[in-house]
UniProtKB/TrEMBL annotation, chain A:
<protein>
    <submittedName>
        <fullName>ABC-2 type transport system ATP-binding protein</fullName>
    </submittedName>
</protein>
<keyword id="KW-0067">ATP-binding</keyword>
<keyword id="KW-0547">Nucleotide-binding</keyword>
<dbReference type="InterPro" id="IPR017871">
    <property type="entry name" value="ABC_transporter-like_CS"/>
</dbReference>
<dbReference type="InterPro" id="IPR027417">
    <property type="entry name" value="P-loop_NTPase"/>
</dbReference>
<dbReference type="GO" id="GO:0005524">
    <property type="term" value="F:ATP binding"/>
</dbReference>
<feature type="domain" description="ABC transporter">
    <location>
        <begin position="14"/>
        <end position="244"/>
    </location>
</feature>
<dbReference type="InterPro" id="IPR003593">
    <property type="entry name" value="AAA+_ATPase"/>
</dbReference>
<dbReference type="InterPro" id="IPR003439">
    <property type="entry name" value="ABC_transporter-like_ATP-bd"/>
</dbReference>
UniProtKB/TrEMBL annotation, chain B:
<keyword id="KW-0472">Membrane</keyword>
<comment type="similarity">
    <text>Belongs to the ABC-2 integral membrane protein family.</text>
</comment>
<dbReference type="InterPro" id="IPR047817">
    <property type="entry name" value="ABC2_TM_bact-type"/>
</dbReference>
<dbReference type="Pfam" id="PF12698">
    <property type="entry name" value="ABC2_membrane_3"/>
</dbReference>
<keyword id="KW-1003">Cell membrane</keyword>
<dbReference type="GO" id="GO:0140359">
    <property type="term" value="F:ABC-type transporter activity"/>
</dbReference>
<feature type="transmembrane region" description="Helical">
    <location>
        <begin position="359"/>
        <end position="379"/>
    </location>
</feature>
<dbReference type="InterPro" id="IPR051449">
    <property type="entry name" value="ABC-2_transporter_component"/>
</dbReference>
<feature type="transmembrane region" description="Helical">
    <location>
        <begin position="21"/>
        <end position="40"/>
    </location>
</feature>
Amino acid sequence: MSQAVMTEKAVMTLEASGLTRRFGDRVAIEDVSFHVAPGETYGLLGPNGAGKTTTIRVVCGLLAPDAGEVTVAGLPVAATATEAKARIGYVPQEVSLYPDLTARENLRFFGRLYRLRGQELRDRVEEVLELIGLADRGDDRVESYSGGMKRRLNIGASLLHRPELLVLDEPTVGVDPQSRHAIMESIANLGTAGMAVLYTTHYMEEAERLCDRVGVIDHGHLVAEGTRRELVARVGEKDRITLSATGSLALFAEACRRIEGIEQVDTADSSVHLIATDGRRRLAQVLAAATVTDTSVRSVEVEEPDLEAVFLHLTGTALRE
Amino acid sequence: MRAAVALAGAELRRVARDRTFLFFMVLLPVLIILLIGITISSNEQIRVGVVDTGRGALSSSLARELADDPALTVESLDSRADASAALRRSEVTAAVVIPSDFDAALRAGKPVTVPVLVPGSAESSQAALTAVQAVVGRHSAAVQAAAFATDRRLGSFDQNLGAATRLQQSNQAVPLRTEVVDSASNFLPLGFSYSAPTMLVLFVFINALAGGAAMIQTRQYGILSRSLAAPTRPRDLVGGEALAYLSLTVGQAVLSVGIGAVLFGVDWGNPWAAAALIFVWALVGTGAGMLSGTLFRTPEQAGAIGPAIGIAFGMLGGCMWPLEVVPPSVRMLGHATPHAWAVDAWVEVLSRGGGLTQIAGYLGILALYAAVLLTLASLRLRRSLVTP
């Protein structure tokens, strides 16, 4: 019966339903539900203390939930812990490596924990070193690495066994911009390679750049989820268009007000500020209005509402560091 | 099991690269075995001064026999005054003054006395007196035999003395061995036979306690909690740590045995008894090391407090000096530590030729210590792994 249901229904790589976890009287997460499909990158966005790490620890089987269930590739984590865990790659928030061992030795150790042996282990270690760009430093002790290199190796250690689900707990904290860029590139590639990725961050730009869908978590509750556009639509945020121009700005502003979708027009010195729904689509009409009103446009800037604004709207607070 | 082996392998690899730990594991035990071995050495040879004022054939032969005695180291002195000076300076334990009429008196069959000078406190000279007495008695026996044969007109005195001496040499007397005993008549091993096994006991324990730092570091690095996200169970990680510590303690013990045998010529007795004792003591060390890794909060604490506790236990347990020389109350207190039982077992094996049967009781007591320590350590480590 359940087999039939499974084949009919697309099996999500990760299904979390109704997760609740308390520490004494404090509720860390409550009724958190979400899923991650194969090849999808799901971002769990929230400030420090929102419940991201608790959610991840429950998902990875490191913490038993008080209520709710997690399945990975159809396997319940609580009941089949080792089998489910074998399908997860976990990247903890802190670099969790032996600093006095080399990168190769660290990878061999973690590979063995994930049941890799012999030639397969040796091959995977070399592949991962290549993937994270540390092949030429593989025999150096980790303590000699820069922060970014350690972070890359921290991720690499979770990729050895080719997990179906990669769980990253704020992997770019304390990383220099160059390494951060490299890490995000690598994660984006993993998503396109078919791996499901659960990514927590409190950096909006990371969530916007990497994630197909985002869950906003605050005070232990998942307050909203969806694609960036869905979230923006849900909170009703508009695009901002700013034009730097010379000429008859009053006439130009009047012409803009008549364009469908333009909801607000303000002029100031040599610029015009517009608030519009789907601003990029209105741009051609706006520029046509400038031509008609003999206005010379020097620059145009379209600001789409970001997740920061969504978060502000949903929680009533700015994203806390 | 594979996860346990992987964890143990990684831990051992780290330890092998720690130069400080290697110093404590290899070099320091050698130095301490050497130091304590020399300090409580039995020094079987007794230094004796000999003044030959007679300078005749018989007095010379007596001086030669004293010099040839394996129990004595003889220093030839010119006069009684030199002998007194050597005694004052503690250069010799006793001085034998062979009188000038020694030859003439013996040849004439007259009694002669050989003075032996000893310092004021004669206790330390007792062994020297006994050894000298034995040599002088042996020499007198040959002279008496020669005198008897000469009296029976069986040849000249010198011929008879030569024959008697040869006969004496070809018929060795029944040897005696001096052994120091305490009130309970326990044989007290001395020299390297004491220092090597006691240092094995001491350093296996100390290095295990100090090695607790490695487990604390592994926890601090987040390795253990990350490992739980892999398909491993807490018991795999507890087993891995135990395996690492057991390998270290067995390695330390085997190293001590090797050093004792090769460098200091220690005979480790019955191999089965020694192997069993090493293994059980390694288990005690494993439990202690793991407990140290769960009790101390920082590697620095384990590295500083661990060895201090190990040394204190070693002192109480007879690793620094034999418990036979301490008051009974201290000896009893010492047996609250596992060290005392281990040292007792080694004394049984090394000094009395004890085998597995003779040390079975000690092994049982040590196994109990190991079980308690390992259980406590495993429970604490497991709790630290599963507690959020």
